[in-house]
Amino acid sequence: MTRALFVVDVQNDFTEGGALGVTGGAHVAQAVTAHLRAHPDRYDLVVASRDWHSPDGDNGGHFSTAPDFVDSWPPHCVQGSAGADYHPDLDTSAVDVHVLKGDGRPAYSLFDGLVEGGPSIARVLSDRGVDEVEVVGLATDHCVRASALDAVAAGLRVSVLTDLVAGVAQGPSEAALAELRAAGVTTAPSADVVAGSTGASA
Ligand code: VGL
Ligand code: ZN
Questions:
Q1: What is the CATH number of the domain that holds 32?
Q2: Which atom of ligand 1 is nearest to the CA of 146?
């Protein structure tokens, strides 16, 4: 197996105190760093995405002054702003590929992003022979969900590491994990997945 890790949107605006702060977001930043340090040889490729919205306009209805927190949101992750930076507790030194998404439009999936100066993420994965991906980051009910579903659609074997994600809302996050399981995704704590006790990865 050739295994990738997707680190989805671990950015200041999605962590406590940010424009769209998710409870547990800062913990995810620390815990993903600890996971990468504990398993330095586990991943053949580490891909990290950032939501990266235009400062101009409403990014295709994604920004709103009266957000519904489902399809529209307060302004967040504006290109070049501190909110769009990776959370400082995420150690990005192990990241091989940086993906930017959402320039002028909503883009929940990492696959909708652009690799800086490179081809599509699908192309990067196939060129590297990636056939298995583990997904961590923010937010469970939005960008983690969409990225994991697209990974299944791309033919990859997919696990979501449930101790390394956090969601906007609890009910929708649980529903998202159930939807992912129905789509064939393994959802389990990182320790179980690493130990191979889920049947997902050895
Ligand atoms: C996200 C809401 C709006 C996410 C991005 O990263 O999950 N959520 N934009
Ligand atoms: Zn966004």
A1: 3.40.50.850
A2: 7
